[in-house]
Amino acid sequence: MGLFFKKKRVESHLPSFTEKDVKLSISKGTDLDRQIQMINLTKQDLLLLKSLKPEIEKQIVTIIDSFYELIAKKGNLVSIIEKHSSIERLKKTLTLHIQELFDGIIDDSFLQKRLTIAHVHVQIGLEPKWYLAAFQDLLSSFIATISNLQMSHTEQAKLINAVTKILSLEQQIVLE
Ligand code: HEM
């Protein structure tokens, strides 16, 4: 009995939502709809992402700093950034962008935003290999955040799976 209560308490510290709190609304028969089916991204995944959002928010400064520390090591990427924007500006943009990934919403606006991001990165001449390489740092940070949560490995694996699905979808859209 004691164990039962202990387990319940540690697992309940992520907020829980119901299906009406998330949105998966993509026109049927489109490529995006098929991509979502192919990676089996479900409302259940969106619920998991949304429940993770407060934990990501707690770590967001560390996540963003780590991302730009990595970029700062690559001279050509710093040059691109300084030519078109600034690290300070992009830190704010990426902070918002990452938080939105955990809103549990995939709709036309989600798609449009990623198409704009793709366009912007093509315009500045960012090669896909650097975009993808930078993504790994975000994934590692998300996994580190999840690994530090007090919950069963099964629950952690579900969260990590949901995170990899949304990042995969994002990459599929931006790199198309
Ligand atoms: C712009 C995300 C990688 C350089 C943006 C924007 C987002 C974003 C959301 C704003 C787009 C808009 O204006 O609507 C990401 C993500 C990345 C990534 C998620 C990978 C995980 C990179 C890398 C560079 C870079 C590696 C290095 C050069 C820029 C620049 C802009 C920009 C310079 C601003 C362009 C402008 O305002 O004219 N990015 N980015 N991004 N990104 Fe990235």
TrEMBL record:
<protein>
    <recommendedName>
        <fullName>Methyl-accepting transducer domain-containing protein</fullName>
    </recommendedName>
</protein>
